[in-house]
Amino acid sequence: MLRAVRFSGPGDFLRDIFSPLPPRVAPVLSLLGLLLAGCGVDGPPQRAPARLEVGTGRSFTALGDGAVLELVRGCQGSQHVFVSMRAWELTSLTARVTLSLERVEDGRGVSSPFAIRLPFEAGTTQDAPATLEGLLLVVPDPAASLGREVRLTASIETEAAERATDTRSATLQWGTETCP
What we know:
CATH architecture of the largest domain: Sandwich
Oligomer: single chain
Structural class: mainly beta
Largest sheet: 9 strands, mixed
Distance between the termini: 96 Å
């Protein structure tokens, strides 16, 4: 036989709901509800954050400790360093790329501003990094930084709002490469 459900106050809500049930069923349903409350549906697996490695060259060359960053004379009279990058865990291959070169000793910027939207090339396998190679970072006054330790910084922000930055230090020297 069912009893009338009454609402006498917020504290009596569950008792009032389960009052029409036999005495043994109400505790079982309460326990089942608590167990199911902890069994939510998991969302999509979390991706690792985007990672970036800045290097040099027309094709990627890593910059290790004590590396030399080669300054190249351009065909139009200016000078630059070639910058290349590798990135992992990107969901969007198009990114705003920002590059800078500064002297380590005093933080003085020695490159022209570089901030442009560019596409990375997808890796050839699932685990291979996306690449962006052969970017020209202009150094307007090389005399201010030749033979000194410089800090190369690259930052990206993809269209999917993924962000990554990498910084490497090297000694800036004239390279042997010339324009074709």
